[in-house]
Amino acid sequence: MSTTDRASTNTHHPVVVIGAGQAGLSVSWYLGRAGVDHLVVEAATPVHAWTDKRWDNFTLVTPNWHCRLPGYSYDGPEPDGFMTRDEVVAWLDGWLTTFTPPVRTHTTVTRLARVESGGFELTLVGGVDGNRTEPETITCDQVVVATGGYPLPVVPSFAPAIDSSVVQIHSEEYFNPEQLPEGAVLVVGSGQSGAQIAEDLHLAGRRVHLAIGNAPRVARTYRGRDCMTWLADMGLYDTPTREYPGGKAAQEKTNHYVTGRDGGRDVDLRQFAREGMRLYGTLTDGKDSMLGFAPTLTAALDKADSVYNSICADIDRHIRDNGIDAPPPTRYEAVWAPEADPIELDLQAAGVASIVWAIGYRPDYRWIEASAFDGGGRPMQTRGVTEVPGLSFVGLPWMHTWGSGRFLGIDRDARHIAEHVAAAVGRPRLMVATGT
């Protein structure tokens, strides 16, 4: 793999891809095969998020066989296993040896704007460790934004009012229990990151307090197979967004919590509570040492279990309707329930020395000067293509299907965007096959 430097970069390119994660590089893979001149601009280094923003014991929550990129698929010995962070990094490094995308690293796009004559003007600033170059301008006819759907970590507005002696970090800054000061830890959020970080701390012997939201849960395995393999067979990852059961409401929900750790298993917060983890409902406010919670714990646990059993019931129908031979059905039964929903926590009295915020991210496209966003700042797009001529996105959750934004859906989404872009610059056909 090669990168370009500032001196060799032209001032105009037919296509610029912003972001060299797996989604942006997948678009570049197809554009390269089609002979489309393009530049990929990356603020750090290619696929850096896997090394920079994943904790030490991170594992995929989707089976390894889901890992498919253009011209490259997982072919290791454990297709139904779950790669660790370091294994994912090695797998991606292997992919990057198979082609040579024109990537310009350590360069940030600080402004993207339409120009009257057509196309776009981009302001670039390069540099590492605070040593930034003077801004420069390049232009392009087509631009593909592949910076990720939600780059800004969310922290509640009252966080600064909490006792300053309590260390606060966001989940993307968490790597291992040893980085946190001695004492108990409060994890806020029960999506995939929050639940798994709470488990990581719990298994390390730390006293954990967990504030849970409305995240649902799913069984790791059911009736002899991984649940996500069943769901793939049922077509859930391929169903177009507009046809997905539950509509927009389903797409706004937090992802189901489950883990691939130690070969994969359920994340059962009730069992954690039996083992000493303290659970709370939604965190609503905090000042100094006192935090307040909504009395939602019981309802949140019940709802998560209801979704768990509902997914199992959907799999039961699939098995029955298709005459599949499988072990008999089961249902999850609660192993613990709170006597009452706690509504407050005194951090000092409980010995809580740190907080890990795992309440998600929000979009940030303020650097893009184009009428392509809704009231919540999300791109208005159809399969990544916007109404702004020449402006496309890739790598967004739910961009086309539930699989969008995941390894399983990246190849298909990237090919679609590359075909659209190639046609716009006079290369109407990509003479390559998909990598899946």
Automatic annotation (TrEMBL):
Keyword Oxidoreductase applies: yes
Pfam family of the protein (one): Pyr_redox_3
InterPro entries listed in its UniProt record: Auxin_biosynth/cation_transpt, CHP04046_FMN-dependent, FAD/NAD-bd_sf
SUPFAM superfamilies tied to this protein: FAD/NAD(P)-binding domain (SSF51905), Nucleotide-binding domain (SSF51971)
Transcription regulation is among the record's keywords: no
Keywords, in A-Z order: Oxidoreductase
GO MF annotation list: flavin adenine dinucleotide binding; monooxygenase activity
Source taxon at top rank: Bacteria
Designated name of the protein: Putative oxidoreductase
Species annotation: Gordonia soli NBRC 108243
